[in-house]
Design goal:
The protein has 17 helices and 15 strands. It is of the alpha/beta class. It has two domains: about 30-65 and about 345-455, Aspartate Aminotransferase, domain 1; about 70-345, Type I PLP-dependent aspartate aminotransferase-like (Major domain) (Aspartate Aminotransferase, domain 2, 3-Layer(aba) Sandwich), CATH 3.40.640.10. It has a seven-stranded mixed β-sheet, sandwiched between helices. Strands 1-2-3-13 form a four-stranded mixed β-sheet. About 50% of the residues are buried. The protein binds pyridoxal-5'-phosphate. Pyridoxal-5'-phosphate binds near residues 225 and 260. Pyridoxal-5'-phosphate binds next to helix 6.
């Protein structure tokens, strides 16, 4: 390690407080200091080359080097580095990006608002739903339903909506208006003999019971990721979305589809909504919108909701919401360039092509003694680790088997993400077949390393 890297690590430990991190472990062990990246590879201060099997945080769609994106940012910085979108002001790039996104959005969206993160997009959505319900004369319709293990962000409202107990603990959250329905993990939670379709119908019944218990007249919205990402790369079981959407429609619940991870090709279509036939009323997206080269997010919705916003704006005199950096010119320019690149390189076609190899290689790990279930789509795959796959007996959580696999993978030069004993594998969308082979070889090696430790405990 060179002197600069050592100094960076000391500075980091001394002052930088890290999100979503075990603080004691960080104080003792310090960070993995990533110094640069190229393609699907990142490099740390020890000089190690690591395949990023988690795309940063599910965001680095085009990998870690792209001159066109860098030039688009530079050009915009030299032309107009900032312009507010408050008070009727605008700039050409944000207007163009709005038109472009609406042109490609799923489900007939007409309007778009920009923010800097997925959390802010979803938080804005919650506010707009409440705002519109007030205009409609239904101010009591405030409850928002998410799912256990679902993830929609970290503002006070979006983390309340997320079903992540470790993000609620000690914060006095979730807020009372936020409710959670079941996690559709078929493998883990099906009753013996229950088919996937029957399980999905049971999930929908449980959702309907929650709506009825809360009172449908108080339920404003249901938020969901097409496939659960932060909760463990979990694909929906067969029939799940048909059953869930029937309940959503029956009670006139606003349906927000959170495309923050699935959007822009992850599942082999532009949107997760296309992959699973979702009919959203609102759509949030972020991350790959700018290929993660600039923090920007978008919330899209329909004219019906906009009409209600207009009524409130008329009454109050202003639509009283917004962030300083909403529709930032550099973010808009970078996003437009990213969307151009996606079209020009036929990113979706590429994902579909390499997905075959990716899923084949992932499926081949199904027989590993640590692995109970492998399920994926596009370049998005989840692995369930279990002590006994057949009897569905989990490992003792204290053994931290998922974390063990994650650490061994890192030692072998692959970054994966363990969420409890589920592993999320979602490389940058530009990954090629040789890199898939290399990544999955390292993954398999990490499973073997972890098994060598775990088998002695069983
Ligand atoms: C599905 C989903 N929604 C929302 C968010 C929040 O986005 P951000 O971290 O940009 O606020 C995330 C973050 O990972 C996410 O996975």
């Amino acid at each position: 390690m060179n002197v600069d890297a050592k100094r960076s690590i000391e500075q980091d430990i001394a002052h930088h407080v890290h999100p979503q991190t075990n603080l004691r472990q960080h104080a003792e062990k310090g960070p993995t200091m990533i110094t640069h990246g190229k393609g699907v590879f990142i490099y740390d201060s020890e000089g190690r080359e690591i395949i990023d099997g988690f795309s940063g945080l599910g965001c680095v769609s085009l990998g870690y080097h792209n001159e066109r994106l860098a030039e688009a940012a530079m050009r915009q910085m030299n032309t107009l580095p900032f312009a507010p979108t408050f008070y009727n002001r605008s700039h050409p790039r944000v207007a163009e990006l709005g038109e472009r996104l609406i042109g490609m959005a799923p489900g007939g969206m007409n309007r778009v608002m920009f923010q800097c993160s997925g959390s802010e997009a979803n938080d804005t959505a919650i506010k707009l739903i409440w705002y519109a319900n007030t205009a409609r004369g239904e101010p009591q319709r405030r409850k928002i339903i998410g799912r256990i293990r679902g993830y929609h962000g970290n503002t006070i409202a979006t983390v309340s909506l997320s079903g992540q107990p470790h993000m609620h603990a000690k914060f006095g959250l979730p807020l009372p208006e936020f409710k959670h329905t079941e996690l559709p993990n078929y493998y883990r939670f099906h009753i013996d003999g229950e088919s996937e379709e029957e399980f999905s119908a049971r999930m929908a019944r449980s959702f309907e019971e929650l709506v009825l218990r809360e009172g449908p007249e108080t339920v404003a919205a249901f938020f969901a990721e097409p496939a659960i990402s932060g909760g463990g790369a979990l694909m929906p079981p067969k029939g799940y979305w048909e059953e869930m959407q029937a309940v959503i429609r029956k009670y006139g619940i606003t349906f927000l589809v959170d495309e923050v991870v699935c959007g822009f090709g992850r599942t082999g279509n532009m949107w997760g909504a296309e992959t699973w036939g979702l009919k959203p009323d609102m759509v949030s997206c972020a991350k790959a919108l700018s290929a993660a080269f600039f923090p920007i997010s978008a919330l899209m919705f329909k004219d019906e909701l906009y009409a209600e916003m207009m009524r409130n704006s008329d009454e109050v005199g202003v639509f009283g919401h917004g962030y300083t950096y909403a529709g930032h010119p550099v973010g808009a320019a970078v996003s437009l360039q990213a969307l151009d690149i996606y079209d020009e390189i036929d990113l979706i076609g590429h994902v579909r092509k390499v997905s075959k190899r990716f899923l084949e290689r992932c499926d081949a790990m199904q027989d590993h003694p640590l692995v109970a279930e492998v399920r994926g789509v596009g370049l998005f795959c989840g692995f369930e680790l279990m002590r006994d796959a057949k009897a569905r007996i989990p490992f003792d959580p204290a053994w931290k088997v998922g974390a063990l696999v994650q650490d061994f993978a890192h030692d072998r030069g692959l970054y994966l993400r363990a969420i409890g004993d589920r592993i999320s594998f979602m490389p940058p969308l530009i990954i090629n077949e040789e890199e898939i082979d290399l990544a999955t070889e390292r993954f398999k090696g990490a499973l073997d390393d972890a098994w060598a430790v775990v088998k002695n405990k069983i």
